[in-house]
Structures are given as C-alpha cells and as structure tokens.
Amino acid sequence: MKHVSLLALLPTGASAFATATGPNATPGAADLAAHVLSHERYDAAANAPSPRTDYKSVSVEDVMSDEYVFPLGETGKSIILSGAQIAAGFLAERAADEWLELARAQHVAEGGTADDTTRHVPDPAEADQLMDRAMESAERILAPFSAAPVASLFETHYRGGREFLRLSWEGLPEDLVPKSRRPAAAVAAVRHSPGEATPRDYDPYGLEGTSDYDVDKPLAYREQIGPFLLTMTYRHEYPQVDDERLGTAFAVFHEAGTDIVAAAVELKLVKVPPIQSSADLVYVLDTYSGEMLSLALAATEALGPERLCSVFNTHRVVFISTWEVRKPWRGEGLGVALLREALERLPADPDGRPDALCVAPEPYQTEARYLEQLPPALRRELDVPAQRLTQHLSEWLERASLPNVKTHFFIPMAKHAGIGSAGENARLIDRIMESEA
Length: 437
What we know:
- The chain has 437 residues and is an alpha+beta fold.
- It folds into 2 domains: 147 residues, no CATH class; 276 residues, no CATH class.
- Helices cover 38% and strands 17% of the residues.
- The strands form 2 sheets. A 7-stranded mixed sheet has the order 5-6-7-8-9-10-11, sandwiched between helices. A 4-stranded antiparallel sheet has the order 2-1-3-4.
- The radius of gyration is 26 Å and the shape is globular.
C-alpha cells in the first residue's frame, strides 16, 4: 500500500485564518479557540473548576495558557490540560481521523473491502511525532492573534461585507440605473400630503404607461441625496409562480463624484398566505431558501405562536437580509439614513398590507457556528454590540415616522442561520409541528 503521510495532514501556517466550514475544512484560530473554550476552565490553586466572569481584557494567549478539565471519553474520568495542549490534541485527532479515512479509501481502491478486518496503522515514527508536530501547528495558527483579545476572533467586524458591497454594486452599469422619476421632494410629499385621505404611490420605478416590463430583470433607478448617490433595485424572486410573495430590494449609497460604495442594504419582502401556526410559516418559507427557513425559525422563537400569526397574516414583513457600511463612514449614521431612504421607496403592497420591519442584529457580530461552544460570560460580552444596535434602532423607529412601517421586531437569526443539511432542516420542522400539535 502506498504510504499516506500522517504528519502531512496537519495544517500549516499558511491556513492560519481559514474560516471555511465542513469536516475537512482547515481550522483557523477561531476554531481552535472555540474548541478550547468549550471545556471547563480549572483553577489549580483552588483545585476546582473556575470559569472566568468576564473576557474584557483576556487575550488569546491567556486562553491558551489557562488549564481546563479534559474528559477522557466515556470513562467518567478526566485530566487537566492547558489550552495549548487541547488545541494541539484537536489538530492531532483531526489529522488521525483524516489519515484513517484516506487509508481505508486506498485499501478499497487496491481491491480490499470496506468491511474487512484489516487494521490500518500509520508509520510508528510519524505517530510518535504527532502531538509535538500538532503543538507546533497550533502555535503557528494562533501566533498572529496571541496578543489580540479573544473576543475579537468571534466578532465578524463585517467580515465579508466588503465582498457584498463590491460584488453587488461596484461596476454596476450606468444603463441599469436610469434617473429616478421619484425625486427626494416627492418622497417628502408622501410623508405630508394635506387634504389626501390616502398618500399617493409615486411609481418610483417608472412603470406607469409602460408595457414592455420584463419580470426577469430588476427594476432600478438612481438619484442624488446629499453627498451620496442613492441606487436602488427591486425584483420579484419567483415571478413565474407568484410575483407578490417574495421580493428583494437593494439600496446603496455611492460617494458622489467618485462612485465609491459607502453603504448598502438588502431587504427581503416576505408575504405569506394566511397561517394558523408557526408550522405553517416554516412550511411556506422553507420552499424558498435556507435563509427564509432560518427567518421562519427565528421569528417563531422571537414572537411566539400567537403574535407570529398576527404579524405575518396582517403585514408584509421586510427583513434586513444584509446591511453594511464601509469603515470610513461607520458611526456616522449612514446605515440608518440608507435604511430610511430604502424603506420609503419600497413599492406599495398591492393588497394594502402595512410593513413590519424585521431586524436580526447578531449575524453581524458573531459567527453562528461558535455560539454553542463559547462560555456564557464571553457570549454575553459578544451580545453587547447587538443589544446596542437593538436599542438604537428601537429608539430610531419610535421617532422615524415611516409611513408604511407599522411595527417592528428583532429576531435571533444567528441561532438559526445556515442550519445545515436537508435532514437537519426536516428535524427542526418536525419538532415545531410536534409542538404545535
């Protein structure tokens, strides 16, 4: 049998910041730190478990120097290991599992059977070196972040937002964004229309009098607002089935003159047929996408069955799917300003439903796959920016006087986003249906 190197399966320093998911994805610093922190911290002086009460000034190096209780399988016994040893053990175990999988596959390829009793054993010299080399590998992965606060590994800091902005908006062809037929002055008129019982909808996309509208192409327009150019598009996601059930609106601020992207927001406009339970909502939204299924599950958790049905039966739910502001403009109120402009320019619902704004603050703070592994004190600390955003938006919505937004609610989307395979989704749906029954 051809030699399969065990040590070659350990990650190198080149993959120190890898964040891909999946069983064979190369782990990064956040993966190692989360695995270490999932163990119970131990205080040698007190000879007892001693979890930290806060992580405000705790560095990655501190976490790796701490000692933890490491359970020995199902024996009921445990030993005390440093965080660095646990991180190295994680890499070693992962490499050993991958080696065994490759050895079995190679055995089958050479004519063996998968269920025979052949015992696959790595090279003894490599096995002896495995833990030492795994320790070196863990040190290489963690070295760039050793002095950084451990919380910074789990705060996304809008990681990926740059790609969202660039891919969605930079280089958007000018001929896709004609000059708006609904200038800012017209929007102001919608807010204050003395003598009018019902505010007029100003046909923001120039559809009046046109007969050649192609439902497969998004509507788009551009206008200048202050120092920024507002570009907005809207499209029905499934026009061939029912063009009023799910729509996507994008709005972006470009810096006027340079066309540099400053901020962008993506809104999902969700309207469902009458529902009697959260199981109905899960069933309907699961047919659209994984994101919509996550929205249904998170909304169920946030609202409870009774209010959930009330909100989704009487409103068009506007979910903030992605919302990003470039670094030079963060903290200037630009994100909220863009959100206002986008909400005011949404096409009116043909059935006359008012809008319910749905906000999920957490996905912009912590990667969902780490939530369950982190100790409670660190999770609370990572929740602070989301709580601050929730409070800020609540206060803003109370005084914003948006004509069509009649209610709003916040959902724990991070707990449900990207929940995985069809099998996992089916189990979650079954659980909700059982609870409803």
